[in-house]
Amino acid sequence: MVAGATPSELVFTKSVQCNYECPTIYAYTLGLAKVRIVSCGHRLFYCVDEPSLSREDERLVSEIARRSIVAGLEVIPSDPESLRKLASKLGVPYPILARKLPILKYYVEKAVSGYGPLYPLIRDPEVEEIAIDGPGRAVSVVHRRFEVGWMSTNIVLSEEELDVLVMYLARRIGKPVSIAHPYAEGLTPEGHRVALTFAKEVSRLGSSVVIRKHLEKPLSAIQLIEQGIATELLMAYLWMLVDHGKSVLIVGPTASGKTTLLQAILGLIPSYKRIVTIEDTPEFNLFDRPHWDSLVARHSYSKDVEDVTLEKLAKFALRRRPDVLVIGEIRGVEAEVFLQAAATGHAALATMHADSARSAIDRLKGMGVPDYLLDALDSIVVVKRIRRGDSQVRRVVEVVEYIDGSLVNVFQWNPRDDLLTPTSIVEVVKRSRVLRRIADAEGTGEEALREELERLVRLLRRLREEGVYEFKDVYRRIDEIFNVYVAGEFIATTPAPTGK
């Protein structure tokens, strides 16, 4: 059986009619489905219209879906020979089946997807998050193009439909729900993060769903710069810290872009360095990068199966020869292991929920991190979602360094001008004690420091000017440049053979 296939009654759940009297401000298609963003009463609504089916079409979809699930197929075969065989088995003339193929194909794929009425939202690359607060309430989405927070859709589920959907989604993440275990969280095979509640055991309104969709194409450092989340100088500064074995903690509220920024930094690290990532729920996607070691925590319901916690994995990771240690999200005792790694000279990166650099330090102390280990923390980056006019944007609002128990500001976002300052390399080097420590440790001096930072800024600017935006492309270009540089340095400093 195809994992997560949903019952046919959910496949044919009808969307509520949208208010066509309100103006459509944006429209696009998702195959046969049509999406409209409607502006109504100072609010935006997400309307999805799917093609209509006759009773006979519904019967055909149900039967084809049943056969597909049994056969382990996720799509209808489209070649004439296979389609003729299917038409014969269904008792439908081949010309009719061939004519109806596009609409049948859409609904069969919807049926076997496991997402039921959420199928068009899952397929929509513009939708970032999906939430159902309870039965009879409109499904809500966060849209990438319109950063106005949550907008309601025209999809509404009954109590029975929502209970069924929750149970099937729970199966997709491998954590069944019931009255005894009324909530669950996990990852779907496609990488979407799902958090569920079942019935009214822990959610007063009934079953509920929140899905944070996996970004198939993670954002690169260049794309973050283009979106105004970061600047060339900031990304060069963070890149330089990691390259010189320093620690960076990225903090902010939920959905502020912490993991997005961390992944973008990882895309700047050349392949000759070994990255070990540790996550509770896997989100990082470094594609086919060599020397990437991905470790994931395991949580067990059984006493006979050992829990593999982030703390255990962090300690284990230190024995796997990392050049860069990454913890997806610090929540507790693994914080101490993270800073121990930083104290022993490893580049270390992590995210944590905190509203400011000061609250991040307070949280770390509350987790039992001793003061002497806090000194191993070099830089704290604060990311937030900021309201600007009618929309919300993500911005790095503050970058501070933790120096001898004090917070020293390096970058600060100016809300009036929407500008991250300083913009001068000289000023950044002047403010940054961590960069000056790097110069002192390596005996290079501040002039060499400024030159290195300038080279990284110029490289990022060059990639922007050449239109190199995608994560894979940015990583490959940087990797190519740095591997050539390292090879050249090795050849230049290696003595020639003596000829003996």
Automatic annotation (TrEMBL):
GO terms for molecular function: ATP hydrolysis activity. It comes from the Archaea. It holds the Pfam family T2SSE. Residues 244-387 form the AAA+ ATPase domain. Belongs to the GSP E family. This is Type II secretion system protein E. The lineage of its organism: Archaea, Thermoproteota, Thermoprotei, Desulfurococcales, Pyrodictiaceae.
